[in-house]
Design goal:
Length: 406
């Protein structure tokens, strides 16, 4: 087999039949400029040093690899370790690629960053790094999302960002993406579009996978120090796929390590079930081209993107990164899904056993660990990525636990 670690960051942006750059003509030069700047910076020791400094002193890296001793005992099988990305500044792994792209934008002389956000988490991380790096920030949100996520709008504005509610279309993420792209086309000179996961046209998947790969690099050192060997399993939740790529990338060529990506099973994934509503692309999705790249998407029979659902806003997306689609196709990774009810149980269990609130996204990974660990011998080691902390889920959780906050 070829060197997968290298292949996943290859300069063509094609991964088997996935990836590519399916964008309007006017966006091509902008993507080419970004691509060139990225591959140059990646080789530049000064850029790497600046980024390492921000990771360490601004975001608090390395994040801990924590042995979940109580959870391990409770489940009675493999040893469970948690990579705690929730302890990053802003509470999730998203800051990793935001800092990377922010530095890159600065280097390219961009004075302004735009982003689109659904739940607000990506907007918040973007607004944060713009404040820190002294770059103007505009965040587009579908008008419906804007209303649903007012606390995040509040925080973004405190950071100096302009948050714009998009009133067109269904007033959700897709409409915000379209508006952001129009903005980019009309301001190609001084603006960088900061995309928040390993999706979109080349070079975004490569670039964000590279910036996130710090997660797996740290895990390799930390797990060897703590157990004297490499892990047997890696588990991560998958929205667009950035935290999963982050954990998996460094280990792709360690053939004995199994990797599992967990999608949002929502209320159920069976099409003829009344409750069916989810974001499990590898369960019922198919190959297609949308939003600038080729990958797996949830589509209706006419090939239109289907609307998705998940208890966790970060996994509620109809596409998945092209590198993930490729790794699944060649069977380097496995995928599974967790239902909302399993996710809530996982959330509760981690809080009770370890005193840690995981984000609802990350709780999908924990739900998989709960199924997997008891089936394995005690000498096996599982590492899961706790992509974020749970504070942000206060409003969803208080409703689920019937707790009236007001
Ligand atoms: C956004 C988000 C995700 C999903 O995004 P990926 O690109 O799949 O990682 C997962 N966890 C948390 C905490 C998030 O904020």
């Amino acid at each position: 087999m070829k060197n997968l670690k290298k292949y996943i960051l290859n300069k063509s942006g094609h991964f088997g039949k996935y990836g590519g750059r399916y964008v309007p003509e006017m966006l091509i030069p902008i993507m080419e400029e970004l691509e060139e700047a990225f591959y140059e910076s990646k080789k530049d020791p000064l850029f790497k040093k600046e980024l390492a400094n921000l990771y360490k002193n601004y975001s608090g890296r390395p994040t801990p690899l924590y042995f979940c001793e109580n959870l391990t005992k409770k489940l009675g099988g493999a040893k469970i370790f948690m990579k705690n990305e929730g302890l990053n500044h802003t509470g999730a792994h998203k800051i990793n690629h935001c800092l990377g792209q922010g530095l890159l934008a600065k280097r390219m002389g961009k004075k302004r960053i735009i982003a689109e956000t659904g739940a607000g988490q990506h907007g918040l991380a973007t607004a944060t790094i713009c404040a820190k790096l002294g770059i103007l920030c505009t965040v587009y949100m579908g008008a419906k999302d804007y209303k649903r996520q007012l606390p995040n709008v509040f925080w973004m504005e405190r950071l100096g960002a302009e948050v714009i509610a998009v009133e067109t279309g269904g007033q959700i993420l897709r409409d915000a993406i379209n508006t952001a792209l129009k903005d980019l086309i009309s301001n190609p000179e001084g603006t960088h579009y900061l995309l928040g996961t390993v999706c979109g046209p080349h070079p975004y998947p490569v670039m964000n996978a590279y910036f996130q790969s710090i997660v797996g690099k740290e895990v390799r050192k930390q797990i060897i120090k703590q157990t004297g060997k490499l892990p047997d399993y890696l588990v991560a939740c998958m929205g667009g796929g950035s935290n999963a790529m982050g954990l998996f990338h460094d280990f792709l060529d360690d053939k004995n390590i199994k990797m599992i990506g967990v999608e949002a099973g929502g209320k159920g994934i069976h099409e003829n079930d009344k409750k069916c509503d989810h974001a499990a692309r590898f369960q019922t999705g198919k190959t297609g081209v949308a939003e600038g790249f080729k990958s797996y998407f949830l589509q209706d029979k006419d090939g239109q993107l289907k609307s998705t659902y998940s208890i966790s806003a970060g996994l509620d997306y109809s596409g998945i990164g092209p590198q993930i689609a490729y790794l699944k196709e060649i069977n380097r990774i496995e995928t599974s899904y967790a239902l909302d009810e399993e996710v809530l149980e996982a959330y509760k269990l981690l809080a009770k056993e370890e005193g840690i609130f995981a984000a609802l996204e990350s709780s999908h990974a924990i739900a998989e660990v709960i199924k997997l660990a008891p089936t394995l011998q005690k000498d096996k080691v599982i590492v899961f990525n706790c992509s974020g902390r749970g504070d942000k889920d206060l409003f969803i959780l208080s409703e689920k636990f019937n707790f009236n906050l007001s």
